[in-house]
């Protein structure tokens, strides 16, 4: 199973949506809350080249945020990235 990481903040509705999507698909993932952690946020920005949360990574590859994940899910690409 691929390694999935998601960078979130505790106040972000898109983060909550992305977490719900991952949970609905029964995906094991690591959540990294950057709400009060500027070092982890800087790490996220460096890895994704984006400033917004959530940022989702599959096996270290950035796939984007919630909207991106929804599009990938709707087209079946998310399942392919997850090896399903």
Please name the defining characteristics of this protein.
Glutaredoxin, alpha+beta, 4 helices, 4-stranded mixed beta sheet, globular, 84 residues
Provide a brief overview of the structure.
The protein has 84 residues and is α+β, with helices and mostly antiparallel strands. The protein contains four helices and four strands; from the N terminus they run βαβαββαα. It has a four-stranded mixed sheet, sandwiched between helices.
What features would you describe in this structure?
This protein is of the alpha+beta class. It has one domain (4-81): Glutaredoxin (3-Layer(aba) Sandwich). The protein is 45% helix and 20% strand. It is built from four helices and four strands; from the N terminus they run E-H-E-H-E-E-H-H. It has helices spanning 13-24, 38-48, 66-75, 77-81; strands at residues 4-8, 30-33, 55-58, 61-64. Strands 2-1-3-4 form a four-stranded mixed beta sheet, with helices on both faces. Helix 1 (13-24) packs parallel to helix 3 (66-75). The longest helix has 12 residues, at 13-24.
State the share of residues found in helices, binned by percent. 40-55%
Mean pLDDT: 97
First and last CA, distance: 9 Å
Secondary-structure-based class equals: alpha+beta
Q: Biggest sheet, strands in spatial order?
A: 2-1-3-4
Number of helices: 4
How do the helices and strands follow one another from N- to C-terminus?
EHEHEEHH
The CATH homologous superfamily is termed Glutaredoxin
Shape: globular
Please describe the biggest sheet, giving its number of strands, its sense, and whether it closes into a barrel: 4 strands, mixed
Q: Give the percentage of residues in beta strands.
A: 15-25%
Please name the CATH topology: Glutaredoxin
Number of strands: 4
CATH class: Alpha Beta
Domain module tally: 1
As a whole number of angstroms, the C-alpha radius of gyration is 12 Å
Low-pLDDT ranges: none
CATH architecture: 3-Layer(aba) Sandwich
